[in-house]
Amino acid sequence: MSESTPPFAPIVVLVFLGAVLLLGSSALVLFYGAVRRSSFFAIIGAGATVTIAVGYLLVLSGVSAASSEIVLPPGGWKYFCEIDCHIGYSVAGAHTAAAIGPEMQQVFAGGRFVVVRLKTWFDERTISARRGNGPLTPNRRKLQLVDDLRRSFAPSPEGQQALERIGGASPPLTQPLRPGESYTTDFVFDVPKDARGLRLLITEDDPETLLVIGHENSLLHKKIYLGLPQALSTSISVIGALPLQAAER
After folding, report:
1. Total of domains in the chain
2. Is residue 59 located within the same domain as residue 78?
3. Is there a domain that residue 79 lies in?
4. Which of 55, 68, 162, 202 holds its CA 20 to 30 A away from the CA of 77?
């Protein structure tokens, strides 16, 4: 099972760029009218600017209001469009721990640590024949764990550092990929012991996505989550490779 954000990415990006171009042109007409003290050009510019902005925001909010929240099952793929290709993300496994780190240097969780292994994949089926085998650096991402009470939890810096002391740093999400390549990255979250229904939210971290029609970051739009295994394995400490449930392709 897979979902992508935004759907019809090339089209909605062109619509966004077209709206920006039209707004800029209308603003120039308004500015020209103000400088030349021409009420005709000022009215035309102001009217066009307001009409384009309001119309775009209405479509943006309407599409967002019609969206639905999606929780992909473990092993499902969430795709982000990079215009000429797609980068997919999937939960390759997860487990909990009361503490992380080698003996005598353990870091204890405020509640409990949830360690999530995320797989990043450059889907070679989403490129054109003319693109070639050049590397792609994925856009910036933001990760949170969200529970059934809508509480969100960012990765724990202390837990992340403790995990890296055991097995070294895993590849960052900005590591370049060639078509067909993949890697896994481990993330540590410190969540309350009463947190239930945890799922992973990975989103783009670019501000312009707030104004892209159909993008999950846009105003009022529902999110696409990656579900975690229902029964998370538990250990006292992390001592190396994680006992994860793989989601290989």
Report:
1. 2
2. no
3. yes
4. 162
